[in-house]
């Protein structure tokens, strides 16, 4: 049951009969839905793609704490504060599972951090937008975590075991995150006219950045073919974006809010909503480091990393001493 073609990423797509016996056996495992584990043989490009995607995902969880952490001290009630705090802490946990999954591929946490701080590795474009009002906490939970779930539920079946297993718990927690965001939106739209206006304004600002989270359109996606052949990705960027629009539009209607897209229309023939694409030039600018908050976000992460150096050094020194004591005993 070998795949017809295998994309190598660097060399284009090769026919199955061009594969080495190791590559063919590897592809057969993927096609048979047998998980790849860290000690199994894997093509170098598979390892590299996974480190890139899992690392980017881990960085997104960690950087993703910043726009919401910004609101913990300003939550309107004690209950909302406790919920938001729990959510932000969950994101830290997600980052840690994902860094651990990436480390099983032979890259260290320090290397991953250095690559984030130097700009060599990315994190999700969405976190380069500011959170200006409390309604943004609603929009982020509803739309950003909603988009994350759409992308991550299929990743529970991804071919690399540690990544797939991390996704199971992450998805459970993301569902709670999405619900808490929608709950904030429900409160805002049933409040004063000014509060409803804040909710609409948050939707207006987060709609297109949320659509960008799924990556460029399929025709411009560099990695999709290869990643789909290796079941690192289970769906294309456009498929997931369409699913997200189909699920989110009725939720906006229920809230009594308007999606900021004049061309949004239900298409009976396709059974999907037709919608306007995000501004891909803006997306490219954000990826290049020129979004509204890129410098601030990266600056905050670098400051936290440098500020924590004494603590990491202390932990390492303690571990070294404990190891010596064990040898001596
Ligand atoms: N932002 O060939 P493509 C979350 C890059 S949610 C930045 O289609 P791929 C959270 C891409 O890396 C977010 N960069 O790439 C939620 C590539 O550049 P490089 C995290 C993006 O990898 C709430 C280039 O564009 N989720 O964690 O096949 C609270 C070409 O794209 C973006 C994940 O990471 C973007 N939006 O597909 C807290 C899910 N889109 O690397 C936290 C796992 C594309 O060649 N990741 N690029 O320089 C994925 O599913 C895929 O990596 C993507 C992109 C769908 C995102």
Report the sheet-strand fraction.
under 5%
**Name of the CATH first level:** Mainly Alpha
Output mean pLDDT.
Answer: 94
Number of strands: 4
Write down the overall geometry.
globular
Tell me the strand order in the biggest sheet.
1-2
**Count of DSSP H/I helices:** 13
Alpha-carbon distance between the termini?
A: 54 Å
Helix content: 55-70%
User: Which hetero compounds are present in the coordinates?
Assistant: benzoyl coenzyme A
CATH architecture: Up-down Bundle
Please provide a written account of the structure.
There is one protein chain. Strands 1-2 form a two-stranded antiparallel sheet. Strands 3-4 form a two-stranded antiparallel sheet. It has a single domain (16-328), classed as Ferritin (Up-down Bundle). Helices cover 64% and strands 4% of the residues. It contains 13 helices and four strands. The N and C termini lie far apart (54 Å). With 329 residues, the protein is mainly alpha-helical. The structure holds benzoyl coenzyme A.
Helix/strand layout:
Elements (H helix, E strand, L loop, with lengths): L4 E3 L5 E3 L5 H11 L12 H20 L1 H5 L8 H26 L5 H10 L16 H21 L5 H29 L3 H20 L11 H6 L7 H19 L9 E3 L4 E3 L5 H11 L3 H14 L1 H20 L1
The site of benzoyl coenzyme A has 28 residues, from helix 2, helix 6 and helix 9.
């Amino acid at each position: 049951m070998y795949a017809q073609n295998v994309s190598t990423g660097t060399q284009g797509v090769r026919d199955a009969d061009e594969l080495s016996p190791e590559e063919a056996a590897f592809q057969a495992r993927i096609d048979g839905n047998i998980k790849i584990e860290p000690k199994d043989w894997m093509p170098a490009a598979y390892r590299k793609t996974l480190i890139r995607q899992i690392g980017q995902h881990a960085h997104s969880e960690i950087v993703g704490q910043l726009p919401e952490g910004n609101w913990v001290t300003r939550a309107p009630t004690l209950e909302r504060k406790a919920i938001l705090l729990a959510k932000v802490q969950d994101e830290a946990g997600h980052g840690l599972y994902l860094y651990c999954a990436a480390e099983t591929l032979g890259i260290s946490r320090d290397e991953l951090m250095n690559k984030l701080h130097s700009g060599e590795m990315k994190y999700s474009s969405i976190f380069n937008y500011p959170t200006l009002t409390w309604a943004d906490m609603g929009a982020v939970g509803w739309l950003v975590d909603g988009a994350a779930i759409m992308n991550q539920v299929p990743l529970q079946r991804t071919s690399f075991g540690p990544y797939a297993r991390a996704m199971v718990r992450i998805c459970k927690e993301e569902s709670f995150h999405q619900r808490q965001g929608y709950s904030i939106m429900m409160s805002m739209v049933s409040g004063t006219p000014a509060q409803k206006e804040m909710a609409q304004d948050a939707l207006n600002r987060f709609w297109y950045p949320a659509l960008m989270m799924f990556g460029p359109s399929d025709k411009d996606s560099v990695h999709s073919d290869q990643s789909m052949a290796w079941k690192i990705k289970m769906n294309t960027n456009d498929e997931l974006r369409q699913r997200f629009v189909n699920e989110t539009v009725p939720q906006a209607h229920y809230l009594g809010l308007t999606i900021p897209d004049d061309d949004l229309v239900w298409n009976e023939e396709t059974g999907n909503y037709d919608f306007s694409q995000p501004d891909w030039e803006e997306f490219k600018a954000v990826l290049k480091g020129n979004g509204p908050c890129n410098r601030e976000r990266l600056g905050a992460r670098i400051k936290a990393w440098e500020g924590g150096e004494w603590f990491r050094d202390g932990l390492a020194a303690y571990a070294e001493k404990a190891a010596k004591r064990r040898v001596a005993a």
